[in-house]
Write a structure and sequence with these properties.
Layout: H1 2-19, H2 53-67, H3 72-95, H4 102-123, H5 129-147, H6 155-176
């Protein structure tokens, strides 16, 4: 038991020192003004899907962070950060033209947004509905710019369009709650 605890603490220390300074995507304000972010405002993560084992460690760290978020409000906070991370990863994949990771990145984005929406609705955290709606609304402009880097007849365009449509659907669900 002590070995497991020591291993976990060591891993946590390494993880936080290595990934602790990752710059998050600009967060939307909690006021009533719609915040629109541009593609250039979405900064790349230090570790992206192309980074192999580093990316795997990052994803495991995200899972561990979620596991140790006990309250619904703390889980919402983690998901808010992850939604921004997934948007930054999607931007990275699209701009670097890494098509081998493209489909997974688009799915990872809308899945994380859906998990956030489901948590908000199931936990009935209405105080977060408006801030989350504003933040997700700001993502739509970024997704549109990323989508428009492809020809509308391509599968890539449709995948990003699906992300946009999923986000809009989630926003509608938060509006009716």
């Amino acid at each position: 038991m002590i070995i497991k605890l020591a291993t976990f603490l060591l891993f946590t220390l390494i993880f936080t020192s290595f990934f602790g300074n990752v710059k998050a995507v600009q967060e939307a304000s909690s006021g009533t003004n719609l915040v629109v972010i541009s593609v250039r405002d979405v900064t790349y993560e230090q570790v992206n899907p192309l980074d192999g084992s580093k990316y795997l460690i990052k994803r495991i760290g995200e899972k561990i962070n979620m596991f140790f978020s006990f309250s619904s409000k703390s889980k919402v906070k983690v998901y808010k950060k992850l939604v921004n991370v997934r948007l930054a990863e999607l931007k990275f994949i699209i701009e670097k033209k890494e098509m081998g990771y493209f489909e997974a990145a688009t799915k990872r984005y809308f899945t994380t947004v859906g998990q956030l929406k489901n948590l908000l609705v199931s936990s009935n955290i209405k105080s977060e509905f408006m801030p989350i709606k504003e933040e997700l609304s700001s993502h739509i402009s970024v997704l549109i710019k990323l989508r428009d880097s492809y020809d509308p007849s391509t599968a890539e365009w449709r995948f990003v369009e699906d992300d946009i449509n999923y986000v809009k659907g989630y926003l509608d669900e938060l509006s009716t709650e």
